[in-house]
Structure to design on (166 residues):
């Protein structure tokens, strides 16, 4: 290939590519849980465009193609809420998901004092759970959503810049 993946802030014109990648990426999740009506597969382009203005969106680009994305925001409680980490199936297992998470954590820390980062995944999403554990996230709660799905909440304490350089 010869090209490297560049992580940057998503632009408004990226909305369509992000939505297509999200739809592709969540196919395996829908199959895993037997639920094709999950929100990432039913989200409208208008809804995603609105989210682009409300929170941070990062994209991973390989040339002109978006091959990864993640979004999040810093809450008033100091918790960075992270959502919808998606990596194109052909780009998975090369560290891109971890790079996107780390980049978003840094971006959220620029917004103010972060005490922790929080995200959710399904209980059967073992690959996701392994990735998040490697990134330092620990399970803090499990919420049963339906007979097929329980959401696992994972958190990671924020490391202050002062502590990181000491």
């Amino acid at each position: 290939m010869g090209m490297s993946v560049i992580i940057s802030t998503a632009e408004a014109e990226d909305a369509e590519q992000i939505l297509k990648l999200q739809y592709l990426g969540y196919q395996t999740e829908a199959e895993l849980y037997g639920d094709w009506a999950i929100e990432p597969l039913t989200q409208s382009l208008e809804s995603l465009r609105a989210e682009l203005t409300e929170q941070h969106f990062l994209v991973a680009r390989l040339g002109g193609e978006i091959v990864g994305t993640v979004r999040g925001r810093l809450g008033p409680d100091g918790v960075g809420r992270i959502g919808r980490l998606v990596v194109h199936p052909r780009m998975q297992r090369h560290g891109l998901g971890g790079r996107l998470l780390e980049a978003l954590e840094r971006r959220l820390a620029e917004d103010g004092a972060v005490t922790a980062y929080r995200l959710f995944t399904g209980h059967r999403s073992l690959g996701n759970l392994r990735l998040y554990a490697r990134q330092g996230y620990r399970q803090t709660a499990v919420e049963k959503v339906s007979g097929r799905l329980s959401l696992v909440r994972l958190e990671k304490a924020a490391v202050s810049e002062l502590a990181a350089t000491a």
